[in-house]
Specification:
Blueprint: H1 23-69, H2 73-82, H3 94-121, H4 127-136
Helix pairs in contact: 1-2, 1-3
Length: 168
């Protein structure tokens, strides 16, 4: 991964591996971070489920009202009795599912990821991605700067980049 001198054309200090941190550990931290990002998406989906089930439950009120107006009392009463306010899992509404996920699996996952970063990389985040960026960007080309505010360091290459699969 190799460090870059401060002020040089590379990642800032927060995105350079500490001295002595090997590439395999950087990759392992990257995989752990990627897994946490996936769990963050899962958490977002749980909140979507929470909101969608709530909207569906409130929509049932209108359905009950319309069934009553149409004279379908039995259907309306069954919806009121069996669906409105029903638990989605035994003993749980969706807010309780979200809370259990947040306080259990999600909290433990975040803590383990944070602890690993603190212990192994001094708390630095996205070291693997920063290394990928260094390897994949076209050094010296506008739009490929190592970090924000470094546009003035970029100069167009003398010849077009003709590597296969690279946009011009």
């Amino acid at each position: 991964m190799g460090g870059v001198e401060p002020g040089g054309d590379g990642p800032d200090a927060a995105h350079r591996p500490p001295d002595g941190l090997d590439d395999v550990t950087v990759e392992a931290l990257g995989k752990l971070s990627e897994a946490l990002e996936t769990v963050e998406r899962v958490r977002g989906h749980l909140y979507s489920v929470h909101q969608l089930v709530g909207m569906a439950d409130f929509s049932l009120d209108a359905a009950v009202s319309l069934f009553m107006q149409a004279g379908h009392t039995e259907t309306a009463e069954r919806i009121e009795r069996e669906l409105i306010g029903r638990n989605v899992l035994p003993g749980r509404w969706t807010f309780q599912v979200v809370e259990e996920f947040d306080d259990g699996y999600y909290a433990e996952f975040r803590e383990i990821e944070r602890e690993a970063r603190m212990r192994l990389a001094g708390g630095r985040r996205h070291l693997y991605e920063a290394g990928l960026k260094e390897r994949r960007r076209t050094h010296g080309r506008p739009g490929h700067e190592a970090r924000p505010g470094r546009e003035e360091e970029s100069t167009p290459p003398a010849e077009p980049d003709d590597r296969p699969g690279r946009p011009e």
